[in-house]
Amino acid sequence: MERKKTNIEDIDRGIYDIKDEFTYKYKSDHGLSREVILEISKEKNEPQWMTDFRLKSLEIYNSMPVPAWGADLKDLDMDNIITYIRPNTEMKHSWDDVPDDIKNTFERLGLPQAERESLAGVGAQYDSEVVYHNIRKELVDAGIVFMDIESALMEHEDIVKEYFMKLVPPQDHKFAALHGAVWSGGSFVYVPEGVNVDIPLQSYFRLNAPGAGQFEHTLIIVEKGANLHFIEGCSAPQYKVNNLHAGCVELFVKEDATLRYSTIENWSRNMYNLNTKRALVDKNGTIEWVSGSFGSKVSMLYPMSILKGEGARSEFTGITFASTGQYLDTGTKVVHAAPNTTSTVNSKSISKNGGHAFYRGLLKVTKDAHGSKSTISCESLMLDNESKSDTLPVIELYNDDIDIGHEAKIGRISDEAIFYLMSRGIDEEEAKAMIVRGFVEPITKELPLEYAVELNNLINIELEGSIG
Amino acid sequence: MSKNLLDIKDLKVNIDDIDILKGINLKINEGETHIIMGPNGSGKSTLAYTLMGHPNYSIEDGEIEFEGENINDLKADERAKKGIFLSFQYPEEIPGVTVEDFLRTAKSSVSGKKMGIITFKKVLKEKMKELDMDDEYASRYLNLGFSGGEKKKNEILLMSVLEPKLAILDETDSGLDVDAIRIVAEGVNKFKDENRSILVITHYDKLLSYLKPDYIHILLDGKIVKTGGIELAKEIDQKGYENIKMEFSN
């Protein structure tokens, strides 16, 4: 029987929860030390500047406090996290060469099938290393580079050195510093000037090892007038110990270029997801974020757009679904740093069965950004009385020649709406599901199709048997 | 004699411990059109919601029988499946759910048969044409941003697609202009046949001239105090409810 894709820890997360036996080629000791970092760097055969960068980041990490706002992180003990686990394989360019257990995991997650049907290239990371990377030949011929970041460090060292952690420096916050010290895996994408990639590229990050951390780095450069859609997926099976994800995404969108970055995050509910994502957008360029946060125990995630060039645009579409035992602190930050820049934020959250969804947003308009425009809408829906929802949009303005629209709504599912639907012959469970699906519809239609289907399944399963 | 469809026996309903309906008796046979008139606060909408099964309206006493079966404890969706329909005075807005998708789901549910997308599209298009509704309504979100008149028309559309045995129209004429009333009335008349019954709740007689009712009931303070023919509506129109109130205040 085919297993249902679900992600409910307290019911059955189905395929996401299938664990592979924990085997590895190399793993670092628990915790964080100079020695651990030197080992990681040596394992990877890195240039000296990168080793130095890691050590510098470690110093910064040690000197910075754990953030005192947002999520409660006191149960996250770095001494118990394994920072580096090399899986039992080298990186392959054909699924046939990937060891069976790892390949089967990605088969269950539907990645090779998606690659055949709807993607132009795929990267697959398993624990700390990328185990598979492939890109269609015509894209390579067009000059597009899509590879794991370790290979990029060998083959395109100049570019990596120029951009790596320049947008998210290790000084940014404690977990950015941690990332700088122990980063491993991730994807590097370079789209040359004027090239349109009309089918998406995807990277999938799977964390299989218990008590481990995943620290992948994604670096994307879209040159002048080029166009790309990049999809990022993440998941992990459920363990009793805490896992940590502190990835970093740096996106450079050049003049007249467009980048859409879609993420579906489906971590298990023992995961601390402390991820940093940032885009720098040049003149008339566009960044579009599509962000779905469904998993993890704790999330702190606020993709940031810096609109640096005149006429730059950003669009953020986000959905967060918090259920039992989940505290999901998500949102977005936009900095308007040039004239006539535009931003749109459309965020929705659902909380249920004691889940807590917190929207945290920042809109900053610098004194040069006259003629800019921003529209922000955040809506929250709570499905019962145990669940919580908060909205904290912060607006900082340094000039007043701007146009801002802001709307925030927090509500519960309405009994009158349920009755209205039931009076047309629809049962209570379906009526609720219909209202919730309708609530997220503006987001679902932005998601890649298979994720839209997945989201609807998730809603149905979350609501099954929830009628008291 | 035609068969009995709805039989309300000594129905008493309260909300938050306040008695609203104080013993309603009403029989509706197949093919009949009944009108309930009454001033604001007399319990008209409570009666409509109670018949549809709103959970906040608790039946203290009495019985609602539909086709000979007691339906006091049935939920709204179960009543809908039996063939009861309520056209809401204030239809709810449901963002993200299109009129077409919603109606197809509802139709499949009340009829117990899955409806193909293409077959259903055809049926819907026809019904919309009858009501002088533009095709684009089908892809709009249910009642969202509809004007008062559009919402009422949409309720009549739901009725004509779902084909219930008993349609309760709660203040369907309020908020409609003359043309819209005519179109809605035509829709109701098209729907009506020898088996289907209609219960209209109103406090004006705007719809009445189109509908040819069989009975008019006057509801005052939770009780039906007078039943008659169309002449009763004319009397109310001319003299208001005051005379009747006086008559029954002692």
What's a quick, concise take on this entry?
The complex is a heterodimer of chains A (468) and B (250). With 468 residues, chain A is of the alpha/beta class.
Characterise the protein shown here.
The complex is a heterodimer of chains A (468) and B (250). Chain A has two domains: 15-301, no CATH class; 415-468, no CATH class. In chain A, strands 5, 6, 8, 9, 11, 12, 14, 15, 17, 18, 20, 22 and 24 form a 13-stranded mixed beta sheet that branches. In chain A, α1 runs antiparallel to α2 (48-63). With 468 residues, chain A is an alpha/beta fold. Chain A has helices at residues 34-43, 48-63, 100-108, 111-118, 137-141, 149-155, 157-163, 174-182, 415-422, 428-444, 449-463; strands at 26-27, 85-86, 121-126, 129-135, 145-148, 187-191, 201-206, 213-214, 217-222, 227-235, 243-245, 248-253, 258-266, 271-274, 276-281, 286-293, 298-301, 304-307, 313-322, 327-336, 342-351, 356-365, 372-382, 388-397, 402-412. Chain B is of the alpha/beta class and 250 residues long. In chain B, 37% of the residues lie in helices and 30% in strands. Chain B has helices spanning 44-52, 76-82, 99-111, 117-130, 148-162, 178-191, 208-211, 230-239, 242-248, and strands spanning 4-15, 18-29, 33-37, 58-66, 69-70, 84-87, 94-98, 141-142, 166-170, 197-202, 215-220, 223-228. In chain B, the strands form three sheets. In chain B, strands 6-9-10-3-11-12 form a six-stranded mixed beta sheet, sandwiched between helices. A four-stranded antiparallel beta sheet of chain B has the order 2-1-4-5, covered by helices on one side. In chain B, strands 7-8 form a two-stranded antiparallel ribbon. In chain B, α5 (148-162) packs parallel to α6. The longest helix of chain B has 15 residues, at 148-162. The interface between A and B is medium-sized, with 24 and 29 residues.
